[in-house]
Amino acid sequence: MNQFYPEIEPYNYFLLDVGHDHQIYVEECGNPDGQPVLFIHGGPGGGCSSNDRRFFDPDVYRIILFDQRGCGRSLPHGSLDFNETQYLVNDIEKIRQKLAIDNWHIFGGSWGSTLSLVYAENHPESVLSLVLRGIFLGRPEDTIWTFSSGGAIRIFPDYWQEYLNALPKSNQSPSIKIAYDLMVGDDKPLAMKVARAWSKWEIRCCTLKPNDEFVNAATNDESCWTLARHEAHYMVNDCFLSPNEILENSHRIKNIPTTIVHGRYDIVCPFDNAWLLHQALPNSKLIVSETAGHASIEDETKHHLINATQQMSKINNSQ
After folding, report:
1. Which burial class, exposed, middle or buried, applies to 255 when counting CB atoms under 10 A from its CB (0-12, 13-18, 19+)?
2. Which of 84, 118, 133, 258 is the most buried (most CB within 10 A)?
3. Is 242 annotated in the active site?
4. What was the pLDDT predicted at 55?
5. Which of 74, 79, 110, 199 is catalytic?
């Protein structure tokens, strides 16, 4: 099995002013003269981690990571103002222009796959290749699956009950809107309680095998505050996408080499997301992690992703 590349530190990092009082954190790692690759994190609201640098050979790649608006090291922390999908797409283009990159590889997982696809469909000329993991198409049925009346709660009803127990008794219903209103309301202790419960519910569902270390690392108060509130903000607004936007616009990226990696037992983003995307992109390569759920740190998925980045470097050399 492929393992992470050794830990590395950025050789450059900065805050980029993207307007509307938002400054986004950007860092560069690896080889300054290498092939540029942009890592797009999940959530929305997840932020990047040091392990996200390690999917890429630092001798081959100029590795670029950024924290999306309002999360991670971006400022102001937790801001949902002017925080929509198209703003994030525009931010990515501003990063590319700031770094004077003509075109680059894109690597994104979960919500990061959503944003990668929307960005590529808007700027296909800027994308050399796509490596996507844990596909989330951003349709209403995809949000309902995990956070409302969908199938996930039938698989983990005990975890779901713990989430419901965090809601006021008058609001114990599986409504994303109710949770969102509580998390952006004036009662900050209650908002934090709901955000913790929301995040813990999702993160516990991410791995095929229970992984307490993974759950604990992803559910500290700062992470929960942005993950839960950002996700609910996007979900109540249909991810700021038109109905079935990604699949309907897939013809725009049909010629971009695309590798899709998806866990067979992904409860957060069911496998049909990846299957439908693969059908819409017949030239794409679909790799199924047969022993994994949603998380990128699961051994088989990690192996496939690192193998995909190794293959990705040959795309640029062949053009």
Report:
1. exposed
2. 133
3. no
4. 98
5. 110
Contact 106/114 with Cβ under 8 angstroms?
Answer: no
- Helix or strand (DSSP H, E) at 233: helix 221-236
Is-catalytic flag, 110? yes
Which of 16-25, 115-124, 164-173 is the least confident region?
A: 164-173
Q: In the β-sheet with 12-19, what is the strand arrangement from edge to edge? A: 12-19, 22-30, 61-66, 35-40, 104-109, 127-133, 258-263, 285-289
Q: What is residue 294's three-state secondary structure?
A: coil
Q: How confident is the model at residue 318 (pLDDT cuts 50, 70, 90)?
A: very low
Q: Does the active-site annotation cover 294? A: yes
* Catalytic one of 148, 266, 278, 296: 266
What domains lie within the chain, and their CATH numbers?
A: 12-139+240-318 (3.40.50.1820), 141-239 (no CATH)
Q: Which of 22, 262, 294, 304 is catalytic?
A: 294
Residue 317 scores a pLDDT above 70: no
* Mean pLDDT, range 300-308, rounded to an integer: 98
